[in-house]
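Ticket opened by: R.M.
Priority: normal
Category: complex prediction / small molecule

The reporter submitted a protein together with alpha-D-glucopyranose and asked that the result be attached to this ticket for the collaborator who will pick it up next week. Submitted input follows.
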Amino acid sequence: MKRLFYTLSLALALVSCSTAPKSADSAVDQRVEDLLSKMTLEEKIGQLNQLSSMNNLEDMAKQIREGRVGSILNEVEPGRINALQRIAKDESRLGIPILMSRDVIHGFKTIAPIPLGQAASFDLEAVEAAARIAAIEATNDGIRWTFSPMIDIARDARWGRIAEGYGEDTYLTSLMGAATIRGYQGPDLSDPTSMAACAKHFCGYGASEGGRDYNTANITPRQLLDVYLPPFQKAAEAGAATYMTSFNEIDGVPSTANSYLLKTMLRDAWHSDAMVVTDWASTSEMLAHGNTYDRADVAAKAINAGVDMEMVGETFIQNLPQLLKEGRVKLSTIDNAVRNVLRLKFRLGLFENPYVDENKRVAYAPEFIEKTLKLATESAILLKNADETLPLSSKVKTVALVGPMADAAYEQSGTWTFDGDASHTVTPLAALQAINGIKVLYEPALTHCRDQKAAGIASAVAKAKQADVVICVVGEEAIMSGEAHCLADINLYGKQKDLVEALSKTGKPLVTVIMAGRPLTIAKQVEESDALLYMFHPGTTGGTALVDLLFGKAVPSGKTPVTFPYMVGQVPIYYNHKNSGRPAAGTELLIDQTPVGAGQTSLGCSSYWLDAGFGPLFPFGYGLSYTTFEYSNLKLSKTELAKNETLHVTFDLANTGKYDATEICQLYIRDLVGSVTRPIKELKGFKRVALKAGEKTTVEFDLNMADLAFTTLDMKHEVEPGDFKLWVAANSDDNTNEASFTVK
Ligand code: GLC
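Result attached by the on-call engineer:
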C-alpha cells in the first residue's frame, strides 16, 4: 500500500495547481502567530472542538468560557448566537469568537432546487446566484460557515445522497462546485455576507458499495485521481475555505485518517490552506471501522493525518493532552491545526465583527424569489412530450390536478431543508389556483408518496374524466432521499404507479410530473403519460416554475445530470463508462426474444443484460424542449495539435421550432487509444444558447489539449499523443455531429 501511495504522490505532484499558497496573507498570519503564542494547550485544543447546539444556553456558555469550543453547528437563532459570541468575546480569557455553522445545502430560508436539480440547469451563473442568496440569508442569522457544496461524484441512484451532489460527471460537478463556493464566499471572506464553504465529502463517498450509505468505497487509484478527486482540486482552486472528511473508507483507510487525501493531495499537490473538519463523529466511528484501538488512537490517527477540527466526536478534547505527553502527537501538529482554524476566523472578520444585526431581516426578498424561480425553471427536465401535449393550449379550461406531491410544500423542498419555511413554498396547487380562468379539480388521491391505500384513486379518475387535461404530480417525500435514505428499488413507490396507470386509462391527456431526490425507474410511467416533466425536488418556487412551464410562459431547458436507469439492476450506470472487450452491439437478443432451448453460445457474448438490454432509459445530458434544435456545420480549427495547443470548435445551431428556447449544447471527446483504457465519452464543455424561433447562430468551444490529460499507465497525469473523436451534441448519446483530431 505504501508503494502505491508514493506512486500516487508522484502523479499528484504533476497535478498540482499553480495557485500560490493561500496563506500569502501575511497580515492575517501575523495575527494568528501572535494569538497562538498566548494560548494555553487547553485553549488550543478547544479551538479544534466543534459542538452541536444544545437547548440549554448555559451548558454551551460554560464550555465557551473555559475556552473549550472553536465552533458550534446548528445554532440558528440570532439572539442566541449573539449571546454566545458575547460570552466568547467578553468572558473567555482570549475572547476568540465562535465559528457558527449550519448545513445550508440548497438555500437557508429561500430554498433552491436540491443540488442535483441545480446541476440539471447547467447554468453556473444561476447556481452561483443561488449560493449567494443562501449566504446572504444565512449570515443574516449569524451563520458564517456552511457544510456545502457536496461534490461527491455519484453513479448509483440507490444512494440517497445522490440528491445532494451534482451528478455523475466530473467536469460538470467540478464547475458546479466552484460556482457554489464563489457564491457562498463572495470576493471577500471578511464581508459580513460571506459564508465559508466546505468542499465535502472528501473523498469518494459517492462510490459507497451497493448505493448503501457509509459503506465501503472500492475505488481504484486511477478512478480516484481522474473521477473523484478533480472536483476537490477545483474547489481548492476556487478558494474553498474548508473541507470535510467523508464517512467512508477507501481501500481500508477511512478518510478521517487518510493523510494521502489530507496532506499529499490537499496540502502538497493543491497548496490549499483550508481548514479540515471531520464529518459528524467520523472520528469515533473509526472504532467501528476497525482501524483504531480506542478513542485516544482515534484522535491520534485523525490529527496526525491532517484533520484540524473535530465535529462532535470529542476525542480531541478528551485525549490530545495525554497524547502530547506520550509523544504520540506533536505540539507542532496541534499548532498547525489551530492555525488553520484561527486563520479562517481572522479572514472572516469574526474578531472585528462576531455579532449579527437581529433587527435586519432579509429572508425571501423578492429578488431572491425571482432568481430562485429562474433556477427552478431551468432545472426542470422534459423527458417526454408526445403530440405536443405541452405547452397546454389556451383551450384548456379545466385541469385535474392529482397526486400526493401536488400540494406537499414540505416534501417539495427535498432533503437537507432545515430552515426554509414551508409556508413560503408555492406548490403546484397554489400556482395553478392563482391562474385566472382555469378551473382546478384537485385530488391528492394518496395521502403521501408511500401511501399503500388505493381508495383515493377512483376519485382522482372521476375528476380526470371531467377535465381537459390531467396533471399528476408524484415522486418521493423529502425523507426518501438524502443521508442514510438509500433504496434497493427505485421504482415509483407505493400506489403511485397504480395512480398513473389508472389516469392513463381515462383517455385524457396525461402530464406526469415527478418530484424526487434521485432518478427513478419510470419506464412504465413514461409509456403511460403523454408528457413527463422531472423536477429534482424544486424547492420554494417549484409550483410557480412548474405552472410557468406547463402553460408555456417558460420553455423547458434542463438536461439530466445523471443517467436514468431502465431498471435498478443496471446500477451503477453512467455515460462515461469504459468500452470493455465485448461492448454491446445493441442488437442482442433479449430474454423474451430468445428461443426456448437456445444453444449455450447462441446468444452471442457481449456486455448486456438479457432482461434490460444495455442502454439506460435516458442518458446523461438528455432533455427535450417545446421547440427543436438543429446542429450543423461542425468545424475544427485544426486536425493536428501539439499538447499545449487549443482546438477551436465551431458549429451552427438553429432553433427549428415554434418557441423561443434555450439549448444546452454539449462538447464530448473520446480518446481512442491510451496507455490504459479510456471512457467511451467525456464531457469537456457545455453552453446554454438562447435562440428565438427560427433563429440560427454559430456556437464556439475552445478545447485545451491540456484538458485531455489523465492518469497514464505510469501513474503520471499527462496528455498522450493519439487520435480523438469529438462531438457537439444535445446529449451524451447523440453522435450525429462528429469530428476527429490528433494530438501529436
Ligand atoms: C452529516 C453529513 C454531513 C453534514 C454533517 C453536519 O452526517 O454527513 O454532510 O454536513 O453531518 O450536519
